[in-house]
Amino acid sequence: EVQLVESGGGLVQPGGSLRLSCAASGYTFRNYPMTWVRQAPGKGLEWVAYIGWDSKVIFYADSVKGRFTISRDDAENSLYLEMNNLKHEDTAVYYCARDSGIVGADDHWGQGTLVTVSS
Amino acid sequence: QSVLTQPPSASGTPGQRVTISCSGSTSNFGSLNINWYQQVPGTAPKLLIYRNDLRPSGVPDRFSGSKSGTSASLAITGLESEDEADYYCAAWDDSLKHRVFGGGTRLTVL
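Output (structure tokens, whole complex):
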């Protein structure tokens, strides 16, 4: 069974940093691209970042480019999101998702981790 | 910039057929492959339809997708109370190298 478990969320002040992790199990992690998607309280889904299966292809949403870094450690079956210079508008539940490799469809999602940016 | 537009709400009664639309505002909408997600409030999204009209294993055939011209649709037949959720269309815009989501449609089963 595919499982994705996020961790690392919490309360952080504006301008601060946070590192999210996503532990994958139940499949061959290194074979699949991964994405981060976030959802602000009461709002819709917003794509954040994508990393290809071999880490050579990486894309970011304009809203986080230059502040967030997506990475993966295939030996640890883990996905990461390093978030710097956090802003109030980054407050959201952050989901990691497995990209099926078919037209950008995310076929498995974690339960999400809440990031709150507040002073 | 690619934008996917959905109606904010939809509703139906048990057993009814409902459709949710997703329209595109860019000239490349015709080349986009639309995926649909279902999100029950308080839970993670779930892939419902991919590549416009394909269902992942385990998704009931009550759910179907279609795409024509500048719009796509999700249809749900034999509406059930458990279908009450938010539904999002999404696509990978290869020209922008961005994934885009529609604003979501809250489906209420009356």
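The CA atoms of residues 2 and 26 of chain B lie 6 Å apart.
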